[in-house]
Design goal:
Layout: E1 5-9, H1 21-30, E2 35-42, H2 57-70, E3 76-84, H3 90-99, E4 104-108, E5 111-112, E6 115-116, H4 128-145, E7 151-152, H5 171-187, E8 191-195, H6 197-200, H7 210-218, E9 224-227, H8 240-249, E10 254-259, E11 262-267
Parallel strand pairs: 1-2, 2-3, 3-4, 4-7, 7-8, 8-9
Antiparallel strand pairs: 5-6, 10-11
Helix pairs in contact: 4-5, 5-7
Amino acid sequence: MNIIADYHMHTHFSEDSEASMESMIIGSIQKGLKYICFTEHMDLDYPSAHGTFQADLDAYQKELLPLKAAYQDTIQIGHGVELGMQPHLASRNRELAKKYPFDFIIASMHLLSGLDVYYPEAWEGRQESAVIIDYFKELLFCLQSMEEYDTLGHLDYIIRYSPTRNQNYSYELYGEYVDPILLHLIRNQKCLEVNAAGLKYGLGQPNPDTFILKRYRELGGHRITIGSDAHQPEHIAYDFSVVQKLLKSLGFDSYTVFQKRKPMTLPLE
């Protein structure tokens, strides 16, 4: 495995993980990684019936900094966050981004019209394709309203939980809604995340899907970040060898890590 950076992982500071920070660091070292970044969930106004998904950012920083120093000769550890986008949250997310000395910020969208697409109620009584189209439209609106991020996380997150998953998912059906998102990233020199969790969830593809990665490259996009979206040590760098082979086949020759919000390019060998 030649990918040496995993720039999307969670610990007990995120609602959906129980992993200790040190266990994730040790797991990353065992996988041969040289760069990692913790990206704890921060989804403001998340529906309370399903949790909070708001990390205690002060406690997170307090625990991270000594570990970052302790392991600095072995692995570079980033201080990141995954900001959950909703149309009304741009200014509040902007304030959060500026309040803490983050190395890296992922902008992600988990909710559509205030409902997490992980849960059935987001899909009830609606045509699957209509929900997916609305998701892409709302995602573009959110990106246009917010500048304080470095990469767009799992662009087609919604496909993990749609009723037929990626069985009926193609560029022909959704390209006209995906292209404006990709062009927005390219114009604004933002990265597109390649999230290996799609492989873990049995999609046979990362998120975003191969057709989106191919289209991004066709449009001139080349800035990518790579993350496992691991919530426990065994999923760190999940199927990165598969991700690397795919990216190379599509013409990508590098990926990006961030330190103090500044990009650094690593080769895809």
